[in-house]
Amino acid sequence: MITLQDLYDRPLSYSSIKEFAKSPRHFINYRNKPKETTPALTYGSALHCMLLQPQEFNNQFVVIPKLDMRTKDGKETYARLEAESVGKTMIDDKLHNEIFGVAEYVKSNPEFEILMSGAKTEVKEASEIFGLPFITIKDIVKADSVVDIKTVQSGQIDNLIKDFFNYQYHIQAAVYGGNFAFYVIEKGEPYYNGLIQVSADFIRYGKKELERLCVGFNYCLEHPECFNMSYDFWYMVEGIKPIISLPYWVKNND
């Protein structure tokens, strides 16, 4: 179903190996389904572009002005803009103005200005990890440092620790390598933004998880029928018999 040659033609990424962490079947579904656009993805992509490659914004996005769709002119203008947006993402002017304001606020932060001075952006790199080809697109690369921009609901550190673990960003840190850090940007006022380092434990855990996933993936390459398996793959590999029991917090309070 998937061969090593297939991976050299279309390498693994943080996003795809994160799907494999659920199961091989989840990975196959992710690989085969068309790329979806959500409001959250549009917001993040537009902000990334304004911050890192502003000269590319008009090549990637079309801003739709406020139109009265009850009128002929409004409908014709929208149809024309829609035709012109083939291959681009459409965003309304209200969202555009909001994102532009956030981008300008972030750029005014001396910490971001220092970070961007002499840095490379949107750096595409190929690598091999545990015998598997990977591709990464690194937001900001400066010397041996790699910084990934994340838009967040809350920049409070306890929330970041919880959310970033749940999103498995430790695996991303392991895939990207280097002296890894995040630049976080709150989506809402007061739009806190700043550079946040990660601990050695965060990196070590990510590397351990990445190794576990790559070992599992190599097993699937040797046994292609495993790509048809869902959660039962990890049950098999890790010798787990799934049993529904009491949650750990109930047990601890018993």
Model description:
The protein folds into 2 domains: 1-20 and 110-254, Lambda Exonuclease, Chain A, CATH 3.90.320; 37-108, no CATH class. The N and C termini lie far apart (47 Å). The strands form 2 sheets. A 5-stranded mixed beta sheet has the order 3-4-5-6-7. A two-stranded parallel ribbon has the order 1-2. Helix 2 packs across helix 3 (24-32), helix 4 (39-52) packs across helix 7 (93-107) and helix 10 (169-176) crosses helix 11. By secondary structure, it is of the alpha/beta class. Helices cover 51% and strands 20% of the residues. The chain has helices spanning 4-9, 14-22, 24-32, 39-52, 57-60, 72-84, 93-107, 110-116, 157-166, 169-176, 200-222, 232-237, 248-253; strands at residues 61-64, 89-92, 120-129, 132-142, 145-152, 179-186, 193-197.
Give a quick rundown of the structure:
With 254 residues, this protein is an alpha/beta fold.
Poorly predicted ranges: none
What is the chain-wise order of helices and strands? HHHHHEHEHHEEEHHEEHHH
Main beta-sheet strand count, sense and barrel state: 5 strands, mixed
| Beta-strand segment tally | 7
User: How many helix segments?
Assistant: 13
